[in-house]
Structures are given as C-alpha cells and as structure tokens.
UniProtKB/TrEMBL annotation:
This is Carbohydrate-binding protein. It comes from Formimonas warabiya. GO terms for molecular function: starch binding. Gene3D superfamilies: Immunoglobulins. It holds the Pfam family CBM53. Residues 20-102 form the Carbohydrate binding module family domain.
Length: 106
C-alpha cells in the first residue's frame, strides 16, 4: 500500500485494477476524521449511475485509517463510497469513486 496524501483520503492498491485480482481500499477521509468507530465500504459494479452487485464491506480499523481487501470479480467498473454506522455518508461530493477494471490483456 502506498503511503501518501490522496484526495478525499482514499487509496486504492493496486491500480490499475485487474478482474479476478484482489484490491485494497484504504480510507482516512471525512468519516474517519470525524471519529467514526465503524466504516463500511459500499461497492457496486457497472456504470456510475446504475450499480449492480451492490455490497457493503465492514472495513477494519488500522493505524492508517480503515482498510478492506476484497476480490474484484467483475470486468466492468468498480464504484464505491463509504458510510458509518450512524448513517453518515462520504460519496466524494456526489461523484463516488469509480475505477475501470482491466482484463489483464494488452
């Protein structure tokens, strides 16, 4: 995992994301800064305005923020945002975070 300051307090590693591989999301953004005790990674695949296979992962609290590693099982686009157990959301000012997924072929 890279150690650096990223916009919105989100790091995705590795990038680019390859279908069938594991990806780690580190979050130290608004919810973490506000002292949330639990943070959930809200994920989905497909176009940013029409997610499918939506799932919430409970993130583990680390010294760097909240972190979750999971398998990327779809070859389209990974979309995500965050929420805490109090119903507060960080959705990147309405844009969410969105990454194209590669097949691994050149």
């Amino acid at each position: 995992m890279r150690e650096a300051e990223y916009p919105g307090g989100v790091v995705v590693d590795p990038t680019p994301i390859t279908a069938g591989a594991k990806v780690t999301v580190l979050y130290y953004g608004l919810l973490a800064e506000s002292g949330a005790g639990e943070v959930f990674l809200h994920t989905g695949y497909g176009p940013n305005d029409r997610w499918y296979d939506v799932y919430d992962f409970k993130m583990g609290k680390t010294t760097r923020g909240f972190e979750k590693t999971f398998d990327v099982n779809d070859p389209t686009r990974l979309n995500f945002c965050f929420h805490d157990s109090g119903g507060n959301w960080d959705n990147n000012a309405g844009s969410n975070w969105s990454f194209e997924i590669h097949t691994g072929n050149q």
